[in-house]
């Protein structure tokens, strides 16, 4: 009964155009007021939110958002692009491959797909256009590569999933890295195939490469190494267990500040303050959404809503593979209209466990579907970020991106159906 009441309020408010946070807030408060507190009271809501607010994962999310914004404002993307171009410049498909690698590598720094699409797209796509490459295809490809920033650690989607499901971030990062890097390899192969016909202006490309080479390895390396070291320090600390996820996030902020202010001098204190302010705005809405999502899980537990829904799902889906397939389909459809992770995870995570599905692989897979969901129309955010940068309409980019999205969905699905392909990285 409580699930029906909550769901009715929540769905209505979403359809009326309320934000996710406001819809969650009202869906909690309105039933309590309407029933005079007979179902639950305001003090229960407060206690659930306070319980949710104590998660260290929230701190990691906030810090990674801050470091990602600082690195974006500090122009680390340009340095990453230069070092890749220096080593790969002799290849015919150099610039497109460097562009995709830059997006993937920057995703390993920021952990945010949207930040990667915006930062790398704004810098790299004009270069590709200037060198004569197909605008629509590479707008789609960079959007796809940038979306992996939410799957390749430090993944914001994985951190959000772990916050709601209570799973270990470090272990899920390992699985996410395997899945994300496989998707990245697929994008590079697609780019190479595309560039067999779309060769660009090779004269211009070689002239650019010669200018970069003329600077010498020492100059390029000395300016790029600080940007390249960022994911090495962050991920190395996490995977060697030298640093916890939260500690690695804190180190990433300090490192981003040091490199941007002292080494590259691409940010001043005013710019740094602007990056912090922008981060706070982003973190506030995400943190509130996650707190309400965790509180929703508490609500479901108290009124046995999860058990009722779980029994209903398991009566229809009798096998783990059927449940995984349904999860992929439902999450993919949901991502066409909004990010439903805060609604779905509190429900599906316990059901996945009841089926005996590996929680790390399932969680990383669902985070992957969320990551690439930014590519799907009608409301794919990455499409609308790339549109003004490329000068191509969002739905024209969508025509190019949907086959790429389909391939990445298939890769994620294979890992979810065959968990042994990725669990070898777990300790």
From TrEMBL:
Record InterPro entries: DctM, TRAP_DctM
Main location: membrane
PANTHER family: SIALIC ACID TRAP TRANSPORTER PERMEASE PROTEIN SIAT-RELATED, SLL1103 PROTEIN
Alphabetized UniProt keyword annotations: Cell inner membrane, Cell membrane, Membrane, Transmembrane, Transmembrane helix
Protein name: TRAP transporter large permease subunit
Membrane topology qualifier: Multi-pass membrane protein
N-terminal signal peptide: none
Lineage of producing organism: Bacteria, Bacillati, Bacillota, Clostridia, Peptostreptococcales
Compartments (UniProt record): Cell inner membrane
Chain ranges passing through the membrane: 12-33, 45-66, 87-106, 112-129, 136-152, 172-193, 220-239, 245-264, 271-296, 308-330, 337-357, 363-389, 401-418
Keyword Chaperone found: no
Residue ranges of every copy of the TRAP C4-dicarboxylate transport system permease DctM subunit domain listed in the record: 16-419
